[in-house]
Amino acid sequence: MADIKISALPASTTPLAGTEVVPLVQSGVTRQVSVANLTAGRAVSAASMTLSTGNLVIETSGQGIDFSTTPGTGTSELFSDYEEGTWTPSISATTPGNLTVVFSSQSGVYTKIGRTVTVTFFLTTSTFTHTTASGEFRITGLPFTVTNTAGAAGYSTGALVSQGWAKTNYGVTLASVQNATEIRIAGTGSGQNLDNILITNFVTGGLVIMRGSLTYLV
Fold first, then answer.
1. Is the pLDDT of residue 163 over 60?
2. Residue-range domain boundaries for the chain
3. Which residue has the higher pLDDT, 99 or 35?
4. HSE of 151 in the Cβ direction (CA atoms, 13 Å)?
5. pLDDT in the model for residue 157
6. Which of 33, 49, 83, 181 is the most exposed place for a label (fewest CB within 10 A)?
7. pLDDT score of 150 more than 80
8. Reduced to 3 states, what is the DSSP secondary structure of residue 37?
9. Distance between alpha carbon 99 and the CA centroid of its chain, in Å?
10. Measured between alpha carbons, how far is residue 204 from residues 151, 163, 201, 209 in Å?
């Protein structure tokens, strides 16, 4: 077959599938290679990169964008995770006993950037009884386990409204529980010091309404 100028060849269909083959000479022998194999396993070096369409996909877990060449003294400069999603907040106690909770509303959302997770939640109950439950009141179901590093669990101000709560509604603090997927609540009342809210601080048979947010590390 006579040689054909490249300009005379018909254009290929784009985008390429990666399975197309082209000839190359390897060790003096002409072989075929797929388009996908031309760059497989090889680093791409560029002054800058612009994506006109599609996404930049990280195919290997734990890999990401490495900022180690920028000034810094941190233990890690790799940005390897971003995620958005939903979670389901629930209610428990240190000793649940016969705690019975039926929810009329139960929702939560989260954003995870690296090791930092920010959650928001809203819940209301239609049934709430706890005649033999005891210990701390807990909100459970966080989307990621809180870090086990002391002093890094996370604290945040939040809002708490509850019918029959023994403490007045101010000075409320939400605190994630280290190495767990739970939130504890601390509050103050008139003439009372800041202390963890107990399940018995709620009147059994009462209505619980909660809305809040918290940022913690994983």
1. no
2. 83-217
3. 99
4. 0
5. 53
6. 49
7. no
8. helix
9. 29
10. 34, 10, 9, 14
